[in-house]
Amino acid sequence: MAIGILQELKSRGVSVPGDVSVSGFDNIFGSDFTTPSLTTIEAPLELIGKCAINTLLGIDSEDQISHLESQLIVRQSTGKAKS
Fold this sequence. Notes:
The chain is built from 2 helices and 3 strands. With 83 residues, it is α+β, with helices and mostly antiparallel strands. The protein has one domain (2-73). A 3-stranded mixed sheet has the order 1-2-3, with no helix packed on it.
């Protein structure tokens, strides 16, 4: 979705990150090839899904964790906030 937003903003003449910052979630393939390259959060999606299913099914598992490691990958689609 964030890549689509980048494309739509460009078509409307909106500057990214000059006017608007855009970030994604999941660091999908190609997010570093967009113009500008997309800032994103990288997270263990498979583990998030597994924990969600186990929770829904009421399965108590050693794999269940309360904190999932994630990483902010800053690229060119975000900038300093204007006041």
